[in-house]
Structure formats: structure tokens, C-alpha cells
Design brief:
Rossmann fold
């Protein structure tokens, strides 16, 4: 939970206070995209009321694969820089650890992508221009969608595809973490699944030439998720000629200072502008 709060604070720093007169969005709250164990799976849709680009950005609400609900009027502060830029932001909540583990969580976020794609016109977005982003575990889930969904998707718009990804300090190879005896397996219960299945949920193992253009942001002093996670997947993307970029935040651990946050936000906005925005708009 601390990691998720840290990640979300990044966008709060960038957005600053939101005055009532500055409201420039509408919200569809608690949209149900599925059910499990008798409970609803939901997301919120924050739609800009000015200069909308027709682009949807799915944010993976996940830290340590824990997902939580927040009051939309509070949560919107986290995404104000994106809304100001004309992006529609969809905050996806998945079945949360410790009740659910990563294989089950992966099913949820894929279902969310399918639902957003199928209802895109209702939200005023283009189903072929959907981006995904997240921090830490949320970055892992964003990369899962970016590296696996397009393998099964079509190019005619009938199946959901991810058009761009931004992943901030993401785990990309789960194999070291799921082995019995690794203390992180105990610290993060979502990792407590069959180690033989780890490669299925490791984005690094699924890089192919049809993957989404990907921006990676990582601190070079990260001890929780070492920078090699981003370095290895960056190389894998290069090897198959997928458009990608890596921003290294020097001296940063699993979280950035004000300057690191500024570089991350600027990089994120530039990446989505480059890969998702119709030049006519």
C-alpha cells in the first residue's frame, strides 16, 4: 500500500491544488466491467470537457498488486495534468491482493481493456488509441497488456489492442520473486502462485514485434525493483524493433524527488502525445 501511495503522489505533485472553478472534466464513476466472487470490478472514467483528444489512458490502480477505491473528486487530482492535456483517464481497479494473486489479476485487467474498447464510443474515445500506464506493480500490469494483448488482437479495430505504454519502475521478470524462500513472496502475497507459471506473467518473456510502443522510467538506485528490469525489457524491445525509450533517474530509488517527478511527467506526456494524438486535433 505504501508503494501505491508513493506512486500516486507523483501525479499529485505535478497537479497541485484543484480549485472548484478549475473543474474541466466530467466523471462516470464505478463503471462495472466484470464480476468475481459476487463482487463488482469497476473503473472510473474522467472525461475532459475542453480540448478532448479522443484518447483513453487506462491507469492501473495497483501498488504491490493491491488495488483500492478512492473518491473520484480526490482521485482526479492525480490525473489533472493528463485531463488538462485533453486525455480521458480510466482508473482500473482489479481484484486485490492478498485475496487474489497475479494470474487472477491479469485476467481482470485484460477484461477491463476489453470493456473499455467495447464502450469506447460511449466515453468519446477512439478504440484504436488506448494507452496504458502504471507505477511499480501497476507498471507490470501495463506491460502485461502491452506485450501480450496485441499478440491476440487484430488490426481492424474489432479486438482490443494497446497503442502505447508507460511503465514506471516496473517488475518485468517475476521468476526471481515467486521462488519459495524469497522474502518478497511473503511481503507481496500476489506473488504466491505456482513458480512454474512465472514466465506467463513476466512481460520480459513476451516481447514480440507487434508490442505497443513503450516508455520505461526507472531509478538507478532502486533496490526493490532493480533497474535491470527496465534495462532487459528495453533491450528486448530494441531487438524486435519496437519503438521504445528509457528514462533513467539518476540517484533515485523506488520513487523520485521533485526533479525526477518532473522528468517522468514530461516524458509520459510527450510519449502519449507522440504515439496517441491525432495530428489533426
Amino acid at each position: 500500500m505504501r508503494l501505491m501511495n508513493l506512486a500516486l503522489a507523483v501525479l499529485m505533485i505535478a497537479s497541485g491544488p484543484l480549485a472548484a472553478q478549475d473543474v474541466n472534466y466530467s466523471v462516470d464513476a464505478d463503471v462495472v466491467y466484470g464480476h468475481k466472487d459476487g463482487m463488482a470490478l469497476t473503473y472510473d472514467v474522467f472525461k475532459p470537457t475542453e480540448n478532448a483528444k479522443g484518447v483513453g489512458l487506462m491507469f492501473m490502480v495497483s501498488g504491490g498488486w493491491v488495488s483500492r477505491w478512492a473518491e473520484p473528486t480526490q482521485a482526479v487530482r492525480l490525473f489533472q495534468p493528463l485531463i488538462d492535456r485533453g486525455y480521458t483517464v480510466i482508473t482500473v481497479r482489479h481484484g486485490s491482493s492478498p485475496r487474489y494473486v497475479i494470474p487472477e489479476i491479469a485476467v481482470d485487467v485484460r477484461s477491463a481493456l476489453r470493456h473499455v474498447h467495447d464502450h469506447a464510443k460511449e466515453f468519446g474515445i477512439d478504440p484504436t488509441r488506448i494507452g496504458v500506464f502504471g507505477f511499480s506493480a501497476g507498471g507490470h500490469l501495463a506491460l502485461l497488456l502491452g506485450t501480450q494483448t496485441n499478440d491476440r488482437g487484430s488490426n481492424d479495430g474489432s479486438a482490443p489492442r494497446v497503442a502505447a505504454v508507460v511503465a514506471v519502475f516496473p517488475p518485468t521478470d517475476l521468476e526471481p520473486y515467486v521462488e519459495p524462500g524469497n522474502p518478497l513472496r511473503e511481503r507481496f502475497p500476489a506473488l504466491q502462485f505456482d513458480p512454474e507459471e512465472a514466465s506467463k506473467y513476466s512481460p520480459l518473456m513476451h516481447v514480440t514485434s507487434d508490442d505497443a510502443p513503450t516508455l520505461l522510467v526507472h531509478g538507478d538506485q532502486d533496490q526493490l525493483v532493480p533497474i535491470w528490469h527496465s534495462e532487459k525489457i528495453s533491450k528486448a524491445l530494441a531487438d524486435v524493433n519496437v519503438d521504445h525509450r528509457m528514462i533513467t533517474i539518476e540517484g533515485a530509488a523506488h520513487g523520485f524527488d521533485a526533479e525526477g517527478n518532473r522528468r517522468m511527467i514530461e516524458g509520459l506526456l510527450a510519449w502519449f502525445d507522440e504515439h496517441l494524438v491525432d495530428p489533426k486535433k
